[in-house]
Amino acid sequence: MYAKSVFLHSTTRLPSVFRGTAGRRTFERILATQCVREMSGETSPSPYAAKRLDGLGKNVWVEFGALANKYKAINLGQGFPDFHGPDHVRQSLAECTTSEKGRAINQYTRSQGHPRLVNALSALFSPLYGRTIDPLNEILVTVGGYGSLFYCIQSFINPGDEVIIVEPFFDCYDPMVRMAGGTPVGLPLILKPGGTSSADLQLDTAQLEAAFTDKTKMFIFNTPHNPTGKIYSRTELEQIAALCVKHDVLCLSDEVYEWLVYRDSPKHIRIATLPGMQDRTLTVGSAGKTFSVTGWKLGWTIGAAPLIKCMASVHGQSIYTCPTPIQDAVAAGLELETSRLGQPDCYLQSLADELQPKRDLLAKALAEVGMRPVIPDGGYFMMADLEPLGLEIPDDGRPEDYRLAYWITENKGIATIPTSPFYTREHQHLAKKMLRFCFCKEDATLDKAIEKLKEWRASM
Questions:
Q1: Is the peptide bond before 224 cis (omega within 30 degrees of 0)?
Q2: In the 3-class helix/strand/coil scheme, how is the chain assigned residue by residue?
């Protein structure tokens, strides 16, 4: 940061008012405040920064990851498993780089996607979509689902276009739209009074219809949903689809958690399969979420050929191609798991079975402390309302959920994520005292967190 560099290079020649221990501390506080303002996007970290970066500096993951490390807290904040993905997928990566075929695998591959991978994706998803997906023209492989989201937005949003984003949302949607010059239009999910399940989070029909205008270019939503775990019902998807068709709007459906659907949950329905949606839907998937290898950063978009061609133009002039060995290993994994579909050893379906007891265990522990957890139908995140605890953290200008997340990390040794970054400014008040917890962790990790929750309860 610019402010930090000023501090590091100027403390030996401070004005007299800032000299001495007290003065130096005052100067440090001023510089710290400036750093916070830079991170919040209020100021630019460099006078050379492009205007499109205004307001995009803050990153909740960096902030709370550092906080968790500082206090050596049990990290239930960031959404990454602390266990291995399936053996056969990891072994495929090792073998494809060291075997004789590695001579080719260690070199560039096709820009839009490694042939073996796009064919594997087509073989897996064509039956689920009820049509043959053209592997060469209707699939684009990207650097993670993140890369797909970026391409989807950069390829189709012009300055002045409105983009409806269902809230709470994965926090990159809003800044990506603004970076493209678009205007985010927040559409909040509302929890029914007394609601305890992600199914109790619903869109208001009147608000949904009113969100569409003659400026609307794209509708963005996520199912299964991060951070709530909501899975949209067929009725809800049909309402969204009808409005997208009526207003001729593109639909960006983030489905990276598509396989994480619990036994007691509604079925995951792909909106691209509904009438009128095939040619206007871009569906995002993720190898990292599918195989619990988030560090591999490999994703894809499935969509109509003309849409994928636009995205491929952005991809070709930026990243160009994704790592060939990772694509080959993911392809091998998908080939095997496709052959296992419907069988007990299919990882695509067994991972949710492994996570469901973890979900239930964490929900029980949070409730026993006095929180109100919202039980997710899918994904591996859970929101919990801390309002019943009656905690009052002194107001320091930050949103209340931020202050609560800091307090719990510092004082109870459990790192979480505040939910206000998942809302547009207009609706951040809906975050109230809601925090997000992640439960895709080893039993030992969850046991440690639950023990700390029990200690907290005993101290009340």
A1: yes
A2: CHHHHHHHHHHHHCCHHHCHHHHHHHHHHHHHHHHHHHHCCCCCCCCCCCHHHCCCCCCHHHHHHHHHHHCCCEECCCCCCCCCCCHHHHHHHHHHHHCCCHHHHCCCCCCCCCHHHHHHHHHHHHHHHCCCCCCCCCEEEECHHHHHHHHHHHHHCCCCCEEEEEECCCCCHHHHHHHCCCEEEEEEEEECCCCCEHHHEEECHHHHHHHCCCCEEEEEEECCCCCCCCCCCHHHHHHHHHHHHHCCCEEEEECCCCCCECCCCCCCCCHHHCCCCCCCEEEEEEHHHHHCCHHHCCEEEECCHHHHHHHHHHHHCCCCCCCHHHHHHHHHHHHHHHHHCCCCCCHHHHHHHHHHHHHHHHHHHHHHHCCEEEECCECCEEEEECHHHCCCCCCCCCCHHHHHHHHHHHHHCEECEECHHHCCHHHHHHHCCEEEEECCCCHHHHHHHHHHHHHHHHHC
Q: What is the rounded CA–CA span in Å between residue 378 and residue 356?
A: 9
Report d(CA 428, CA 351) in Å as an integer. 33
Per-residue pLDDT tens digits of the chain, which is 460 residues long: 434 443 344 444 555 555 566 555 555 544 444 444 444 444 556 889 898 888 787 788 889 999 999 999 999 998 889 999 999 999 999 999 888 776 789 999 999 999 999 999 999 999 999 999 999 999 999 999 999 999 999 999 999 999 999 999 999 999 999 999 999 999 999 999 999 999 999 999 999 999 999 999 999 999 999 999 999 999 999 999 999 999 999 999 999 999 999 998 999 999 999 999 999 999 999 999 999 999 999 999 999 999 999 999 999 999 999 999 999 999 999 999 999 999 999 999 999 999 999 999 999 999 999 999 999 999 999 999 999 999 989 999 899 999 999 999 999 999 999 999 999 989 999 998 999 999 999 999 999 999 999 999 999 8
Per-residue buried b or exposed e for 381-398, using 16+ beta carbons within 10 Å of the residue's own CB:
bbbbbbeeeeeebeeeeb
Claim: this prediction has a pTM higher than 0.85 = yes
Q: Which amino acid is at 252?
A: L
